[in-house]
Write a structure and sequence with these properties.
Helix 1 (12-23) packs across helix 3, helix 5 packs parallel to helix 6 (126-137) and helix 9 crosses helix 11 (259-272). 46% of the residues lie in helices and 14% in strands. The relative contact order is 0.09. The chain has helices spanning 12-23, 35-42, 53-59, 70-76, 97-109, 126-137, 156-161, 173-182, 195-226, 230-238, 259-272, 278-305, 328-338, 351-357, 369-373, 386-389, 393-399, 414-419; strands spanning 4-8, 27-31, 64-67, 79-82, 115-118, 143-146, 166-170, 190-193, 309-313, 342-346, 363-365, 378-381, 404-407, 423-425. Bound molecules: nicotinamide-adenine-dinucleotide (NAD) and uridine-5'-diphosphate-glucuronic acid. Residues 121, 149-153, 206, 209, 213, 247-249, 251, 254-256, 258-259, 262, 317-318 line the site of uridine-5'-diphosphate-glucuronic acid.
């Protein structure tokens, strides 16, 4: 059945949710407090880079409205999704100010039965807090639901429509039925649990994936010292069905707006509940060290050959996104620039966002990958964009001053590079 749904927050999660629920046939109103964002959306401009989303928003525009008027959206919808940011504070704890504001707006404007669905990643116990908060202002009936989102940036639409599972944390029976109905045409297991379990599932999933990455990076570090090729080791380990092949790609560590924040967030939740989650603290430390080790490798080559210029391919935290939040690539470039090393950088999509983070005099942002290698001593690949693999390394060789490739994502053809006379070093495979 077609439902009337308001989505509060039109970022990666909110806009994807809006587009996909419209595609599923629901009537959606996307709300944001950011006026520029809404006016862009009203003009048909998409404020984020996410493959497939523009097409969905255009094709199902009959089902979608955009507004800054949260009161109207709440009054006209029966289900209210919250998808606002929950960033980290400096000390790693979770900044709930946007979430609290959204709940406050709902509490003050609700005027009949509503299902309040939280998609933001929030600490365990938030559902109970939200319930009490709404009750302070509204004496009628309503339900609270935790419906964590597991989409990844770059494949958000596919992840939303073809998820491994849909988790619904809920107590109220009517609300559970409404949620199952909203997602009825998505063919995926639907796990209905209590609200606190749903809230914890989200943090546990991200923390576990981050753990896999730090674990494989440590095995890669052993490969570098003892021999062995991490890509082969990961393949062999991942063939065990109990482990699985995913998230075993060694590299310069994980980044993005989620893993670093959610690992810190779970550490903060643990400490608030007097639990010392030492394993997770180490996961985070290994990740930071992995990025620093890569910088040390670059610097030791520059020192050896008396070079001073590094070409950087890739700035986003992973391919297919313009997002540079907590990007390992930006972290690496930051350290290089601070050390006075000249950097020539190129990213297919994330350059504008990266420019805001990397405001050094010794960095030049280039128009193409080939322009970026001109005169460079070392080529450092930091994000595995597919286009880097398609570049003819012969052309790269002609343009570079010295011929060193440090492949932070094991993305380039190592043998081809070696045959052409490059010094090539990946992660966990010499
Ligand atoms: P985002 O920063 O891209 O977007 C959040 C949006 O919410 C912004 O446009 C902001 O203006 C708006 N907003 C904030 N407060 C508001 C309010 N009171 N009323 C209306 N609009 C408001 O965030 P995001 O990346 O979409 O993440 C949202 C949540 O989902 C976070 O908790 C995040 O951890 C979680 N999450 C993110 C991803 C991801 O891949 N980005 C995946 C799964 C879960
Ligand atoms: C991640 C999760 O994959 C999503 O399920 C989750 O919903 C989301 O966080 C969130 O909670 O917001 P995302 O941050 O978009 O999604 O990106 P990932 O594809 O998970 O990559 C995260 C980082 O890990 C990237 O920097 C990537 O380069 C790195 N990574 C990933 C590795 O280093 N190795 C791998 O094998 C996989």
């Amino acid at each position: 059945m077609q439902r009337k749904i308001a989505i509060i927050g039109t970022g990666y999660v909110g806009l994807t949710t809006g587009a996909c629920l419209a595609y599923l046939g629901h009537k959606v109103v996307c709300v944001d407090k950011n006026e520029e964002r809404i006016s862009k959306l009203l003009k048909g401009e998409i404020p984020i880079y996410e493959p497939g989303i523009e097409e969905l928003l255009e094709k199902y525009k009959e089902n979608i409205e955009y507004t800054n008027d949260i009161k109207k959206a709440i009054s006209e919808s029966e289900v209210l999704f919250i998808a606002v940011g929950t960033p980290s504070r400096k000390d790693g704890s979770i900044d709930m100010k946007y979430f609290k504001k959204a709940v406050e707006e709902i509490a003050k404007n609700i005027d009949g039965y509503r299902v309040v669905v939280n998609k933001s990643t929030v600490p365990v116990g938030t559902g109970d807090w939200a319930k009490d908060e709404v009750k302070k202002h509204y004496k009628g009936d309503f339900a609270i639901v935790s419906n964590p989102e597991f989409l990844s940036e770059g494949s958000a639409v596919k992840d939303f429509l073809e998820p491994d599972r849909i988790v619904i944390g809920v107590k109220d029976k009517e609300a559970a039925e409404i949620m199952l109905d909203i997602y009825s045409s998505i063919n995926a297991p639907k796990l209905v649990v209590d609200i606190k379990s749903a809230e914890l599932i989200k943090y546990a999933a991200n923390a576990f994936l981050a753990t896999k990455i730090s674990f494989i990076n440590e095995i890669a570090n052993i490969c570098e010292k003892a021999g062995g090729d991490i890509t082969k080791v990961a393949q062999g380990v991942g063939m065990d069905k109990r482990i699985g092949p995913h998230f075993l790609k060694a590299g310069i560590g994980y980044g993005g707006s989620c893993f670093p924040k959610d690992v810190d967030g779970l550490l903060s939740i643990s400490s608030n509940h007097q639990h010392n989650f030492g394993l997770l603290r180490t996961v985070s430390e290994v990740n930071k060290r992995q990025q620093e080790r890569f910088v040390e490798k670059i610097k030791s080559i520059l020192l050896k050959i008396k070079g001073d210029t590094v070409c950087v391919w890739g700035l986003s935290f992973k391919p297919n996104t313009d997002d540079v939040r907590k990007s390992p690539a930006v972290f690496v470039v930051n350290l290089l620039c601070r050390d006075g090393i000249k950097v020539r950088a190129y990213d297919p999509i994330a350059m504008e966002n990266a420019k805001k983070e990397l405001t050094f005099d010794n960095i030049k942002f280039c128009q193409s990958a080939l322009e970026a290698v001109e005169g460079a001593d070392v080529l450092a690949l930091l994000t595995e964009w597919p286009e880097f693999n398609e570049i003819d390394l012969k052309d790269v060789k002609k343009k570079m001053k010295n011929h060193y490739i440090l492949d932070g994502r094991n993305h380039l053809e190592a043998n081809q590079a070696k045959v052409l006379g490059f010094y090539y070093e990946g992660i966990g495979r010499k």
